């Protein structure tokens, strides 16, 4: 039921489609000519972003690269394994396009529970990190305890450490850096 509602929202509202289109274009350009590519998606959801990238990679000059997608998603609720289902669906699409493909799911309820070792990065791959509406969840109140490290700092540091070829970020415009007492 939730998946159906998400799909209907995705089809009706242009924001996410446009965000995915823009991110995919940046990723496609960054991967131009790369034989092995790895996309780390901080919010794989139902994998709706990736079929269009796969079609573009399959039709690029020189043929498609070996593609690996690592999807981060909260732990399954309701007894299903959504990450596995997304992986199967993306694998079927890749197979139909003659793309060598591998999917890996990482279950984490919070993005700051993900660590680079969980991604199984290979030295011969070019990496893209994709974050759609996730980084704002890592912000903390700047008036809070200054001894507490903000989760966004930790995540951004390990992203920089893995040196992705491209880091795509989609966030809504909002000011998260003011405490409620300072708002007009």
Structural overview:
The chain is an alpha/beta fold and 184 residues long. The protein has a single domain (2-173), classed as Rossmann fold (3-Layer(aba) Sandwich), CATH 3.40.50. Helices cover 35% and strands 18% of the residues. The chain contains five helices and five strands. The chain has helices at 2-12, 14-30, 50-58, 82-96, 151-162; strands at residues 36-41, 66-73, 101-107, 126-132, 166-170. A five-stranded parallel sheet has the order 3-2-1-4-5, covered by helices on one side. Strand 1, helix 3 and strand 2 form a beta-alpha-beta unit. Helix 2 packs parallel to helix 3 (50-58). The longest helix has 17 residues, at 14-30. The protein is globular.
**Count of structural domains:** 1
Strand % is 15-25%
What's the alpha carbon Rg, rounded to whole Å?
17 Å
Low-confidence stretches: 180-184
- What is the fold named in CATH at topology level? Rossmann fold
Question: Any chance you could write out the topology, listing elements then pairs?
Answer:
Blueprint: H1 2-12, H2 14-30, E1 36-41, H3 50-58, E2 66-73, H4 82-96, E3 101-107, E4 126-132, H5 151-162, E5 166-170
Parallel strand pairs: 1-2, 1-4, 2-3, 4-5
Helix pairs in contact: 2-3
Write a compact overview of the structure shown.
With 184 residues, the protein is of the alpha/beta class. It is 35% helix and 18% strand.
């Amino acid at each position: 039921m939730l998946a159906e509602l998400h799909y209907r929202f995705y089809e009706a509202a242009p924001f996410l489609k446009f965000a995915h289109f823009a991110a995919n274009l940046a990723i496609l350009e960054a991967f131009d000519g790369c034989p092995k590519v790895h996309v780390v998606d901080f919010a794989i959801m139902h994998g709706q972003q990736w079929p269009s990238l796969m079609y573009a990679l399959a039709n690029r000059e020189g043929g498609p690269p070996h593609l690996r997608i690592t999807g981060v998603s909260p732990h399954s609720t309701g007894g299903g394994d959504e990450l596995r289902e997304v992986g199967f669906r993306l694998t079927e699409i890749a197979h139909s396009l003659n793309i060598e493909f591998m999917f890996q799911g990482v279950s984490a309820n919070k993005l700051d529970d993900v660590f680079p070792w969980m991604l199984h990065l290979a030295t011969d791959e070019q990496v893209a990190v994709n974050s759609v509406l996730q980084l704002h969840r890592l912000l903390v109140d700047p008036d809070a305890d200054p001894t507490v490290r903000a989760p966004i700092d930790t995540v951004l540091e390990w992203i920089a450490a893995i040196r992705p070829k491209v880091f795509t970020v989609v966030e809504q415009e909002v000011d998260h850096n003011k405490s409620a007492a300072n708002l007009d």
